[in-house]
Amino acid sequence: MGGSTSDVPAIPTVASKQVKLRVFIDFWNFQLTLNEEVDSNFKVDWQKLPNVLARDAIRLLGVDNFTYEGTIVFTSYNPKTEEGRKYRNWATSWLDRQPGIQVKCFERRPRHHPKCPSCHVPVPTCPMCSADMAGTIEKGVDTAIATDMIRLAWEDAYDVAILATADADLVPAVEFLDVRNYRVLQAGFPPHGSHLSRACWATIDLSKLCSQFER
To answer: Does the pLDDT at position 66 exceed 70?
Structure first.
């Protein structure tokens, strides 16, 4: 395990064995961190991003005999808004059809209204603008990522996983895979996701690669 992009030992490999790479992307965690750390107007070229991730992973691993097994993008949308429905249509009708990319899209669920810290009465609307204070929450994405990472490892569908997220909730899954000799490389924007990066075998610093996958 580790969390550094330098002085990383290469994976011992048999010359005839190909290292199988697979990419797992937590869409909103990745996109929102990118917006915060790089540029709120940054537009991702989703046809280039998987290749950029794979190339840097190969550099870190120090191998030249590999296959790219595809990318799974995990995302969510709000079915009650026009913007949410348009996003779902883009994710399932365009992104999901790109070569090597599979999209798993989940409905966002209503969040409970916040409560007053003094009297504990729910506050349904903002007292200033009357907007709904509940909003929505992403449900099922973390579980789906962890489940697919473990399931596909069990099916021998990859040797090395590239995990694009900063979500510490995935640390147990990464640690489980690590003790079974599966390498997980975190792709992110340091120092975000430091807890997860420490559990991973190495880190791909996307802040240094942005120009390669900008649209």
So the answer is: yes
